[in-house]
Amino acid sequence: MTDSKTDKAKGTANKASGKVKEAAGKATGSTKTEANGKAQQAKGELQKGKGEAKEQLKKK
């Protein structure tokens, strides 16, 4: 099981990569790349939330 800081960092990285992919998809007209970018951003948001939840559980 990964620790909360790792999950939060991976989530932030996925969100950033997803934004780049989404922008690249829009710039090139590739709806597939744009959709992949949006999906990666969502994955990053979930990952970051998982890390934050783990952090809250440790505090209790």
Question: How would you describe the overall organization of this protein?
Answer:
With 60 residues, the chain is an all-alpha fold. Helices cover 90% and strands 0% of the residues. The protein is built from 2 helices and no strands. It has helices at 4-28, 31-59. Helix 1 (4-28) runs antiparallel to helix 2 (31-59).
Short overview:
The chain has helices at residues 4-28, 31-59. The protein has 60 residues and is mainly alpha-helical.
Keywords:
single chain; 60 residues; mainly alpha; rod-shaped
What's the gyration radius in Å?
A: 14 Å
Structural class: mainly alpha
Spatial separation of the terminal alpha carbons: 19 Å
How many strands, what sense, and barrel or not for the largest sheet? none
Give the integer mean of the pLDDT values.
Answer: 94
Question: Can you write the helix and strand succession as a string?
Answer: HH
Helical residues, percent? over 70%
The low-pLDDT segments are none
Helical element count? 2
Gross morphology is rod-shaped
**Strand portion:** under 5%
The tally of strands reads: 0
